[in-house]
């Protein structure tokens, strides 16, 4: 049976990626929605044929516990709201998919994991790239040492934020937890970790210059950081809201690889020292949600579990700690 998913938060990502993807998934379907905006509820109900009994708002959301159509709650809200809605979904005995970054503090991420454990539900993070063939190849090249031991990693991810974004939650620290590092840099953190097959032991970081103070009052405009792995391998990373950048590279003893564009939804390209990477561009969110629904149905944890989300939040927080301390080396506990 197809598992029913309820999307919480009908913003850009739900509207343009997840809902269309849920029209193509085989193991799950769009069964319900949770929104604070009545006009969105009406529009989605008409477009996707969602019954009234599967439409919730933020106040009556907890009643979803009684709804047999909903197996999975997918949290697609501003970062700082992930914890509350993941915990409420877990208490309503629903499996949870939570968007990245999992949370805006280590404590929140831990509370989310605990709530899911206590209520016997699975928690997965919306890390779509684990389902993408280009990134799966990078994991294989790095982790299986196809070209020998990895020697260095480089990763950049960012976009130029429009001047009309001054009221966006992305530049509001309370709702975002931080700037481009939380939003885009997390892909570089992930890329370095899955190239190595492990977490770094320490990080160092530095905030970039603020050239648009009217927009970046509360969060960084850009940030560069290094992740240091056990065997001395360094990942050099950069993330920004000032320019488009989109890259994941690795060098090893006997070869190299490069994805660029690496992280967007479409148009990925890859090369290795042996030639072009020949993979199709797939609808990642279809594969991601089908994969997560299948693992939940089989009682298995997802390949991108909440524990991985927590690991990454710890790394993100260590990067900020280092940058605030002027580049001090911060060990990851
Ligand atoms: P968005 O601003 O387009 O949508 C946010 C939604 O949350 C809106 O529907 C808004 O009405 C609702 N909301 C409820 N309370 C809010 C509040 N207090 N302030 C602001 N909005 C509020 O954002 P988005 O781009 O859809 O991002 C949502 C989440 O999805 C974020 O955590 C983001 O990191 C993640 N995301 C992931 C990917 C990916 O590729 N995995 C891509 C985009 C976004």
Automatic annotation (TrEMBL):
The keyword Oxidoreductase applies. Residues 135-245 form the GFO/IDH/MocA-like oxidoreductase domain. It comes from the Bacteria. Pfam families: GFO_IDH_MocA, GFO_IDH_MocA_C3. Residues 4-127 form the Gfo/Idh/MocA-like oxidoreductase N-terminal domain. InterPro entries: Gfo/Idh/MocA-like_OxRdtase_N, Gfo/Idh/MocA_oxidrdct_glycsds, GFO_IDH_MocA-like_dom, Glc-Fru_OxRdtase_bac, NAD(P)-bd_dom_sf. Keywords: Oxidoreductase. This is Gfo/Idh/MocA family protein. It comes from Rufibacter roseus.
């Amino acid at each position: 049976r197809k598992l029913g998913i309820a999307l919480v938060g009908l913003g850009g990502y739900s509207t343009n990626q997840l809902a269309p993807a849920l029209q193509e998934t085989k193991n799950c379907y769009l069964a319900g929605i949770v929104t604070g905006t009545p006009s969105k509820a009406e529009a989605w109900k008409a477009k996707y044929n969602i019954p009234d009994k599967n439409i919730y708002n933020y106040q009556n959301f907890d009643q979803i516990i009684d709804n047999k159509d909903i197996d999975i709650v997918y949290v697609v809200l501003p970062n700082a709201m992930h914890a509350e809605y993941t915990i409420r979904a877990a208490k309503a005995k629903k499996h949870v998919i939570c968007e990245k970054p999992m949370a805006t503090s280590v404590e929140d991420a831990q509370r989310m994991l605990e709530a899911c454990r206590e209520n016997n539900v699975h928690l997965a993070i919306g890390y779509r790239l684990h389902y993408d063939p280009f990134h799966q190849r990078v994991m294989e090249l790095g982790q299986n040492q196809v070209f020998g031991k990895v020697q260095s990693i480089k990763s950049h991810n960012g976009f130029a934020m429009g001047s009309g974004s001054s009221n966006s939650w992305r530049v509001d620290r309370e709702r975002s937890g931080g700037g481009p590092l939380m939003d885009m840099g997390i892909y570089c953190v992930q890329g370095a970790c899955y190239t190595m097959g492990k977490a770094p032991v320490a990080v160092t970081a530095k905030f970039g210059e603020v050239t648009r103070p009217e927009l970046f009052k509360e969060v960084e405009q850009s940030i560069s950081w290094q992740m240091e792995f056990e065997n001395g391998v360094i990942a050099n990373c950069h993330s920004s809201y000032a320019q488009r950048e989109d890259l994941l590279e690795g060098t090893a003893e006997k070869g190299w690889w490069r994805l660029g564009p690496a992280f967007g939804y479409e148009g990925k390209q890859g090369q290795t020292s042996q030639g072009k990477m020949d993979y199709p561009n797939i609808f990642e969110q279809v594969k991601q949600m089908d994969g997560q629904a299948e693992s939940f149905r089989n009682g298995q944890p997802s390949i991108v579990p909440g524990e991985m989300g927590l690991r990454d939040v710890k790394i993100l927080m260590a990067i900020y700690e280092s940058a605030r301390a002027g580049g001090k080396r911060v060990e990851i506990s």
